[in-house]
Amino acid sequence: MAALRLIDALPDFGAPVHAEREARTPDTVHRPASPPQPPAVDIEGMIRAAVARAEGALAARLAVEHETALQAERQRHADDLQALARSFGEEAGATISARLAEIERGVGEHVSAAVARLLGGILSDDLQRRSLDSLAKTIAAAVDDADAVRIEVRGPQSLFSGLSTALAGHAASLHHVEADGFDLSVTIDGTVFETRLSEWSAILSEVLS
């Protein structure tokens, strides 16, 4: 190792002053502060929020569509029930009408046969025939009398509509009571029949006198 020379340890008085100042100047340079950085965008959060909104809108739309379809199905079901009740009423009315006609004929035939036996030994064949014809008309008029026969129908209006159409000939005798089930009753007023037969009896008495 070379010996340290005295000249190396002495300062260089011939060097420029500014060089010494530069040597003493620190390396740190004052720069303006950087502007604040904007907050980071939460992309995942935005995606989650968008998905949640889309799912909510979809659920609301599906709920509306489901309710609309359900209401339509209920309406179709109600219409089918009304159509079924109306059809049932028409079929029941046709059956009842035919049955009432049978009852009318049966009553007329039964009474006429009984009267014919009673009058067989009293009246001639011609008078007997005319008397029985008059009696048959009297019975038919009594059956057709709205006060003599009362048909009460308990059930929905749709059923009664079909029934009244089929029983148009007995419309005056029909009485409707709104109810959930179905029930039908036929009431015959004996007083009306008695009055009608009394009229026939008076006519018969005139014939016999």
Would you write up a description of this structure?
By secondary structure, the protein is mainly alpha-helical. The protein has a domain at 88-208. It has helices at residues 6-9, 17-24, 43-119, 125-144, 157-166, 190-208, and strands at 149-155, 174-178, 183-188. A 3-stranded mixed beta sheet has the order 2-1-3. The protein starts with 5 loop residues before the first helix and ends with a helix. The mean pLDDT is 72.
List the defining traits of the structure above.
three-stranded mixed sheet; 209 residues
Question: Mind telling me the C-alpha Rg?
Answer: 56 Å
Give the overall pLDDT as a whole number: 72
Main sheet attributes: strand count, strand direction, barrel closure:
3 strands, mixed
Give the strand line-up of the largest sheet: 2-1-3
Helix count from the secondary structure assignment: 6
What amount of the residues lies in strands?
Answer: 5-15%
Give me the secondary-structure category. mainly alpha
Poorly predicted runs are: none
Shape: rod-shaped
- How far apart, in Å, are the first and last alpha carbons? 184 Å
Order of helices and strands: HHHHEHEEH
Number of strands: 3
Summarize the amount of helix as a percent range: 55-70%
Question: How would the blueprint of this fold be written?
Answer:
Layout: H1 6-9, H2 17-24, H3 43-119, H4 125-144, E1 149-155, H5 157-166, E2 174-178, E3 183-188, H6 190-208
Helix pairs in contact: 3-4, 3-5, 4-6
Short structural summary:
The protein is mainly α.
